[in-house]
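Researcher: Quick test of sequence recovery. Tokens follow.
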């Protein structure tokens, strides 16, 4: 018998990987959730894609739902940060001009983060813990300010008195759908909606259509 003995590592906390980059992991995970849907994603597949030990991802994120939440929170807070920066700059502008610039910014962030919009579309059709969390934690903060602007302008008689549910869903849907269905746009219309020229055109079309139908003459 050899004098050397193999020492087995005790089960428990995995050895920490100094190169673990949670930012890359979360962005990779978000793309997987957008592509495969929540049910189709396994932590093991994300571990393989990012070159991180499966056990390490389970240690850091515990569950697939927690990984999903952190991935959505990362991008959602980046979007909210861009909107906060915008509104700090335009705080003194007219309400309708604020709405016009808000629409423009939502177009650009939707093109910048198409996976976020794709996951939103997947989740908000039903009542489940993920959709509840998504609406409360991210969608209300992101789109709430738009509703506030609309209410104020309606109270001034400048915007048609359309119910919030109808109006905000129309505006948000018309802005984001082209990006959440980017493959459909390529297949059916031969355009890449994420191309800069197409994004700029979408800004022009959206604001033209929305304001021609929304503002009282």
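Model:
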């Amino acid at each position: 018998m050899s004098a050397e003995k193999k020492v087995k590592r005790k089960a428990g906390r995995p050895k920490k990987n100094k190169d673990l980059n949670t930012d890359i992991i979360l962005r990779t995970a978000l793309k997987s959730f957008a592509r495969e849907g929540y049910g189709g994603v396994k932590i093991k597949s994300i571990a393989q894609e990012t070159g991180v030990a499966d056990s390490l991802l389970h240690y850091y994120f515990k569950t697939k739902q927690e990984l999903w939440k952190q991935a959505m929170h990362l991008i959602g807070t980046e979007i909210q940060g861009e909107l906060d920066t915008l509104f700090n700059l335009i705080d003194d502008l007219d309400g309708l001009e604020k709405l016009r610039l808000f629409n423009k910014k939502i177009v650009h962030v939707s093109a910048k983060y198409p996976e976020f919009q794709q996951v939103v579309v997947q989740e908000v059709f039903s009542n489940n813990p993920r959709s509840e969390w998504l609406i409360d934690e991210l969608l209300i903060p992101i789109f709430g300010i738009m509703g506030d602007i609309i209410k104020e302008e309606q109270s001034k008689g400048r915007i048609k008195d359309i119910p919030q549910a109808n109006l905000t869903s129309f505006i948000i849907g018309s802005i984001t759908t082209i990006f959440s269905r980017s493959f459909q746009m390529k297949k059916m219309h031969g355009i890449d909606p994420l191309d800069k020229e197409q994004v700029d055109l979408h800004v022009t079309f959206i604001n033209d259509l929305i304001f021609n139908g929304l503002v009282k003459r």
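Residues 1-18 have pLDDT under 50 and may be disordered.
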